[in-house]
Amino acid sequence: MSDFLTGIAFFLIIEGLVYALAPSALKRMAAYLPAVPEGQLRAAGLGAMVLGVAMVWFIRGA
């Protein structure tokens, strides 16, 4: 459970950094998102999930 909470904490740190360091870029990206097809967003989300799982797998030495 502590690994899960650590992951959530890192997520919040990274999200906070984006809002603190590049708020205008975040606004532009948010305005652009409705123009991106849903299939492309799903593919990007799935790719990010797969990459994240693979990174955890390799880091943990499985």
Automatic annotation (TrEMBL):
Task: Give the residue spans that cross the bilayer.
Answer: 39-59
Asked whether the UniProt record includes Membrane among its keywords, one would answer: yes
What's in the keyword line of the UniProt record?
Membrane, Transmembrane, Transmembrane helix
Question: According to its UniProt record, what is one Pfam family this protein matches?
Answer: DUF2065
Q: What InterPro entries does the database record attribute to this sequence?
A: DUF2065 (IPR019201)
Q: What is this protein called?
A: DUF2065 domain-containing protein
